[in-house]
Amino acid sequence: MNVSPLDLRQQRFRKTFRGFDPVEVASLMTAVADDYEQALRETDQLRQELMRSEAALVLHRENEKNLQSTLMTAQRVSDDIRANAELEATRIIREAEGRSELLLDKTQARLEDIQREIDGLKLKRRDAETSLEATISTLKNTLEFVREQEAREREEKILFHRPRLAVEHVEAADAPPARRAQALT
After folding, report:
1. What share of the chain in percent tops pLDDT 70?
2. Is 172 exposed, middle or buried (0-12, 13-18, 19+ CB in 10 A)?
3. 100: domain range?
4. Is the pTM of this model over 0.70?
């Protein structure tokens, strides 16, 4: 039986000879109706609060699932990024090592080329020094020869201009003492 507070207020009882006091019954019925109405309001409020709480709980659970899903996705992305970063770092290091080895090889080859050039230039220098020394020696010998020739020519010219007697006298003066005495006689 569903009885509402309004039913309790409008309820009328038959009067009997030895019955209850109608004012007391009406007063009790009003008080019970008020309490019952208050209880129904509270129950309704509690149901509404429960519905809001359940809706909020469902929303929180959905948010929690979304958050967990997001966290898992973020963890996977983080792991992927870390793995990709490690792979990229390894690739970059390998490339750098390869480039450095290539650069080192090129530098070593260039160093060897330069050393060969230096050795070649040293040989050319030695050849040039030897050639220059030979040229200097040749020029010195030529100069000495020319000077000797000039000296001989001068002596011959002097001999051509002197009289013979004087030449013999000069030769005698230059000769050893024994020969000098012979030339004077």
Report:
1. 85
2. middle
3. 5-12+20-184
4. no
